[in-house]
Amino acid sequence: MRAAEVGDLAGIRAVTFATDQSEPGSGADAAYVELIRSTGTALVAVQDDRVLGWAATLPTPHGALLTDLFVDPVAHARGVGTALLGALWPTPSARRRYTFSSKHPAALPLYARAGLVPSWPLLYVSGPTDRLPLGVLRVDRVDAGAAAAAESRLAGGEPRPGVFAYYLSGGEAFVVRDRARVIAVGAAQPGDPAVLARLACPDPGAAAGALFAAVAALGVDRVAFCLPGPHPALRRLLAAGFRVDDFDVTMRTPDVALPIGSVYSPGLG
Ligand SMILES: CC(C)(COP(=O)(O)OP(=O)(O)OC[C@H]1O[C@@H](n2cnc3c(N)ncnc32)[C@H](O)[C@@H]1OP(=O)(O)O)[C@@H](O)C(=O)NCCC(=O)NCCS
Question: Can you give the residue ranges of the N-acetyltransferase domain (predicted)?
Answer without folding.
Answer: 1-135
